[in-house]
Design goal:
- It contains 4 helices and no strands.
- It has helices at residues 11-20, 23-27, 30-47, 49-71.
- Helix 1 runs antiparallel to helix 3.
- Bound molecules: zinc ion (ZN).
- Zinc ion (ZN) binds next to helix 1 and helix 3.
Length: 72
């Protein structure tokens, strides 16, 4: 799942996003990559509550859209 969010990344965010998109990480195995993504999400949870709230607000809408497709 890819999320495009409008928020102000702090230094730590920028560092982690740089790591996540580094050539080393693109070549890393799935476990390493998911660990790094989880670390970033944890950081967002604890330090950027507004981002988490934006995700939560979006989720039910996505679910409704999927259900709508399902019943078409
Ligand atoms: Zn941050």
């Amino acid at each position: 799942m890819k999320l495009y969010l409008d928020f102000e990344p702090c230094n730590e965010c920028n560092l982690m996003m740089k790591e996540l998109s580094s050539p080393e990480m693109l070549l890393a195995d799935d476990i390493t990559r998911s660990n790094e993504s989880a670390k970033f999400l944890r950081h967002l949870t604890y330090n950027h509550n507004e981002v988490v709230q934006a995700i939560m607000k979006d989720l039910p809408k996505q679910k409704r859209d999927q259900e709508f497709d399902f019943f078409k």
